[in-house]
Every structure is written in C-alpha cells, then in structure tokens.
Amino acid sequence: MLMLVVAFLILYAISVLRAAAQLSAARLCKLPVERFSIGVGPAIWKRISRVTGTTFQVTRLPFGAFVHIRDDGQAAWRRLATVSAAVAGTYLALGLMALVFFASHGVDDGRRWIGVNEVLAAAAGKLEPGDRILAVDGEPLYVETGLSLSERVNARDGAPITLTILRDSAVRDVSISPRRDDRGAWRLGIRLASQSDRIHDVGAVVATAIRYPVAQVTMFVRGLHQVMLAPEQTDVGGPVRLVHELDRALESSWAIAFQLVMSLIVYLAAFVIGFDLIRLALAAVALVRRQPSERTPAP
C-alpha cells in the first residue's frame, strides 16, 4: 500500500510539471491562458494574475493538473508548440524520477553473477542469502558462460566441492558435500539468484535516466505483443495481483519495489504521451493545410 501512495504522489508531480510546461509554452507563444488548476472540482485557493489574467487555483480533488488555453483561432504553430511542450514536460518528469532513483541506488554495470537467494539443507550453516559464488573448485563461475553450477556439482558425483564466495566484501572458501534429491541428482541445497554491481558514475546515471522511459515502453510493447500472440499462456493479473506483487517486492527490497512503481508510472504516462502525439499530428496537419492560404500572393 505504501508504494501505491508513492506512485500516486509521483504521478501527481508529473502531472503538475506537464501542466507547467504547457503554461510556459503558451506564454512564450502569447496564447491566452484562462486557468491553471491543480486538481479538479471546487477551488479551495484561487488567485488571478494581474498581468495575464490567468486564474491559478488548487481544488479539493487532487487528480492531476490542467491548463485551459482559450482557442481564439490562433496560428496552428502555436498550438503545436503547446502540445509539444506537454510531451516534453512529461518525458522530462519521467527522466527526473529515474534520475533521482539511479543517483541514489546506482546503475547496473551490466555484469551478472550467481548469488545465493535461499539456503536449504546441505549448505545450511555454510552459505548465507546474499553470498556471491565466484568459483567452483577454483574454476570461475559466470552467468550464461561455461558449465552451470548444477552441472559442475553433478559432474563431481557426490564428492565435496569448494565454493569461493564473496560475503561482506571478503572472499572465502566454503566446502560443501552435495546430497541426492528424489530424482537422483546431486544438490547443494540452495536457491540461486542473479546478482549485479551498482555504479554511481555521473555520466552513466544521467544516460540511463534519459533512456529509461523509452526502454520501459519498449519492454512493455514487447510484453504486450507476447500476450497477443499467446493469451492463454499469460497470467496478466489485476489490481489485487499488482498490490500483492508490490508487497512481495517491498519485503525483498525497497529498490525492487520502487522500480516496479517506476515501470507502472512510465506505462501510464506512455498512454498520455500517445494521446499527445495524436494531438501533435493533428496540429501539424492543420499547420500544413493552413500554410498555402496564409501565403501572401505575389504582386
């Protein structure tokens, strides 16, 4: 529930920044702005600008921010500018959200390591959740490169193996005797998870934040395409499922939970940007159509 509240507050801030970008573009283009409203419904605070006549207000229902621009048949390029500002403002807000997260949490350096997620029988007392497995019997262990940990354990046919692990910034060796499972395979009694390192390089943080909205939308479109191709094999879930997944992620790590929230926000903002792009295309068409009639005939 906490993360849903955080998501609402971030969406609210994005909406305000989007509206502020529209207001700025309208003023630069000298378009008449009647009202800048934070929320909907009856106003609880209101002020009218003596210079522009624009009404600034805060309402009782905090659902987004809106700008009402009076359409007096102004030039199409001015309306094009205000819609473009809405798109730019939304994207900028998403980028700022990502920048704050990556600046505090760091950026994935792209390398993947095998880590311990849960300790069961054979490794009890020797391994701990969060340990990173660097090597098996002196041979380096990598994700998706070379033999897997399971293959190396079974190749020893039950003989003790030595794992070189990283724990609390210290490297140590641990000897473990595998045990057979019900299917006859040798197991260490651990569940694995992929691990990675985080870096705080300024350039990497800024570049990742800029790319983040596009990367998330691309991933969303690919997932949507897979759902359309095989809907019977996809468990989309619903609002209850969303809350459950957020709670599970929060129990594991605040960073994972916040990344889920950021993804959700980007998906919702993508629909708004899509609507803005349609408005942008219509404004561009109107601009092209009006140009011939606005040209001054040659003497």
Task: Briefly summarize what is shown.
The protein has 299 residues and is an alpha+beta fold.
Overview of the molecule:
With about 300 residues, the chain is an alpha+beta fold. Among the domains are: about 1-30 and about 70-105 and about 255-295; about 115-195, Pdz3 Domain (Roll). The protein is built from six helices and twelve strands. The protein has helices at about 1-30, 75-105, 150-155, 200-230, 240-250, 255-295; strands spanning about 35-50, 55-70, 105-110, 115-120, 130-135, 140, 160-165, 170-175, 180, 185, 190-195, 200. Strands 4, 5, 6, 7, 8 and 11 form a six-stranded antiparallel beta sheet that branches. Strands 1-2 form a two-stranded antiparallel sheet. It has a two-stranded antiparallel sheet with strand order 3-12. A hairpin with a 2-residue loop joins strand 5 (about 130-135) and strand 6. Helix 4 packs across helix 6 (about 255-295).
